[in-house]
Specification:
This protein has 13 helices and 13 strands. By secondary structure, it is α/β, with parallel strands linked by helices. Strand 1, helix 2 and strand 2 form a beta-alpha-beta unit.
Amino acid sequence: MNGRKISWLIVTLLVLFSMVLTACGGQTETPAAEVPEEQPVEQPAGKQQVEVFSWWTGGGEAAGLDAMIEVFADKYPDIEFINAAVAGGAGTNARAVLATRLQAGDAPDSWQGHAGQELIGTYVAAGQLEPLNFLYEENGWLDVMPETLIPLISQSDNIYSVPVNIHRANVLWYNPTVLEENGVAVPTTLDEFFTAMDTLKAAGMDAPLAMGEQWTVMHLMETILLASLGSDDYNGLWDGAKSWGNPDVTEALNDFVKVLSYTNSDSASLSWQDASQLVVDGDAAFNIMGDWAEGFFKELGKEPMTEFGWAPVPGTAGTFQFLSDSFVLPAGAPHRDAAIAWLTVA
């Protein structure tokens, strides 16, 4: 019970006590207690804020978010940025935390999501996002965004997120020194990839291909399917034009299983950064990861094409397998104007 409530209780008891005394004492008058008039207390105007939820917490990801926050602070110094990032590669942990918050009616002002069904099939389907067509029209974004990207963030002519990047997923990272010392050329086909890893294993490298936690396994599978099937049949797997029961899909999945035989046994306990670190440390020769790994290598101070190199995933030259991080505006955002300010900068 706070002080004000206690004061009121004392005053009330005094009044009641005086009434009892008046009733018991005949003509004795007891003066009524004066209750002080409560004055409104002015609260100081608080600084605006925007809470942004993401999974950018480590390596180049955190550095990229910090750069975005710096730009935002320069343009909107009166809005406090609250970084609600949750660790977990590709948002594995963050999405679980976000789901709990949304269920409790505690939505952040904006959150990160991958373009595609991760947004459309979940948050849009649940009516949790506000369309952003007005931002695209005001800022002319449709004139500069790739045409192939807009459908991935749209539903029924409404656009639901603001992409902040376009990543290439099908990148093979390698250690130039390890390859040179073992007489291995950078592979360009899956067969060359298998031969290179067989050579490295024969030379005593237990796991030539570094791999991390669960989502990186899925990432690896997607790139190997692309390498085995080609872009048309790969796309067909997702739009229904290609059956997963086709013999060539079975062959592609077998290629993926074979690739797994070259990976480290402790992958489940490693982040994607940990797996990338194995390559630059010389404990593995290869890692398949998106182009964001470059930011991590540079943050470590590694020299391009000396301490790390890159090429398309074997079998995917000429194909840009992409994904895009984007940010959204929740329906009923707690600080809608500040969230819109963030989206215009992001």
